[in-house]
Amino acid sequence: MSEQRKAWTTYIVLRLLFFAVPFAGLYALGLALGLTMTASGIVAAVLAMLIGVSLSILLLSKPREEASESIYAWRNRERTADDVAEDAVLDGESGSN
Questions:
Q1: H-type helices in the chain, by residue range?
Q2: Which of 15, 16, 21, 87 is the most buried (most CB within 10 A)?
């Protein structure tokens, strides 16, 4: 597996786990506390989303950076030095308008 694919796979799997594990636990807790399935699902989804985002920000900076670098490398895989210079000139012209 290429490094780019490995970076994305790692990041996606961890993000899904950071949501799914808290969701399952909170959903079961909501049902145990007597909430309806719908209410338990909504509360669990909102809280799991907040927990997942928090854990992602705190723990996934390196995988997120690797995934970002892989996007940059993929987008610039066939660019020559002339392409980069042309884009810089065009960006300078469009930025002054």
A1: 3-32, 37-59, 61-75, 81-95
A2: 15
